[in-house]
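Hi,

I'm pasting everything inline rather than attaching a file, because the server keeps stripping attachments. The sequence lines come first, and each chain or strand is labelled.
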Amino acid sequence: MSELHFQPVRGRAQEIISAILQTPELASCSPEEAFTFRLACEEVVVNITSYAYPDDVEGFVDVEIEKADRRVVIRFKDGGLPFNPLEHEMPDTTLSWDQREIGGLGILLVVNTMDDVSYAYEDHKNILTIEKETSDPYS
Amino acid sequence: MEIYQLGKELDSFNYKQVQEGVLAILERGSDAVLDMTACKYVSSTGLRVLLISKKTAAAKGLNVYLVGVSAEVRDIMDVTGFSNLFESFSTMEECLEKMKK
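And the predicted assembly:
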């Protein structure tokens, strides 16, 4: 398991995403799977670095990455405002451009690209877990 | 119409310059043709740029077209319903042909 810790987080989304993708668990994925993880991580991490904490707080995010039996599990823990992205309604993807709203796409992409997404609030921390089966034959 | 060429990604880290570039084209009263041939990665922030561009264009009686959307980006656009929001072409030639008519 890889464990990453970042504090502060503001303005560091790119660095955080890169670090996650460079862990052995993810670096061993196929290019297609790496693309998917990069996308899901960008959506989750940018959300945390931009919105989890008020401006004057030096927030943190802990990221745990595990890979067992080709299943990758990434757990994001932040101490920011309690926020469950899964309890908000997903955008209606059948609407035409003039009816579509600008927000909500991030979590839609996470839910659609990952096999499992779950949320918990424990110990004053938001814990968002994303999981995906990979086809890496060498894990 | 004017062509705006995207680089290999459109994400939370480079979206501002793309948005500004496209809006500038619309400000000049031209339709915007986004050449996405080199673009292999789009995140939700990138999709937001496309949607904002489309809405801004429409308010001015203009349009935004996409050219050369890759398979990876097409998947993202399909899942979010964005494929239905834009007229897109495989090649610039096709796009220019269509716009001549």
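The mean pLDDT of chain A is 93.

If the labels don't parse on your end, tell me and I'll reformat.
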